[in-house]
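User: Predict the structure for this protein chain, please.
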Amino acid sequence: MGKKFVASYSGGKDSCFAVYKAVKEGLVPIELITTYNENRSWFHGIQDSLLQRVSASLEIPLTLVRTSGELYHINFERALMTAKEKGAELCVFGDIDIEEHLEWCTARCRATGITPYFPLWKRERKDVVNEFLDAGFSSLITVVNTEKLSDKFLGCVLSHDIVNEIEESGADACGENGEYHSFTFDGPLFRRKLDFTVKDKIMIDSYAIIPLE
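Assistant: Here is the predicted structure, written as structure tokens:
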């Protein structure tokens, strides 16, 4: 049996795919950490009750960390320390190639004595999303930054055609620059497909969001 790991899990495609890749490599998931604000995961607009159902389907315990931006790093480190006490040796992240993200995650792990692990690091962005789809995952676009991408993609289930359309519009196919965020609701890690309710679109500054419950 491989090393035990905790994962930074947003509910989106990259964090889910990173967990999948780690499991395929023989590592053992013991916990997911999801940060959230006012009952929704940071950046992805997913209700905490829905995230609990994700945890049940994945059969991986979930820790929800409610935090403000000012205390984000402190509360994340506390969650890592708790995971370490449960036996976690690694923390898996879904970041691909943004150095600032790498540095932040590495600093949090260094402060708590856990080894950071980035299964998707330095992969071609479009290759990541295409491999995610080829593996059989399903993911819904829940947030669009309308300064970078048309909100016509809001509510679309990712597919190779949608990914190509996003790229053709001038945005990053993987959304790594914040063009869009997603919610993964089915795939090889899931014991069962998740049902959920899509609420009416809301706008927060330049972000178009469809809340999920």
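The chain is about 35% helix and 25% strand.
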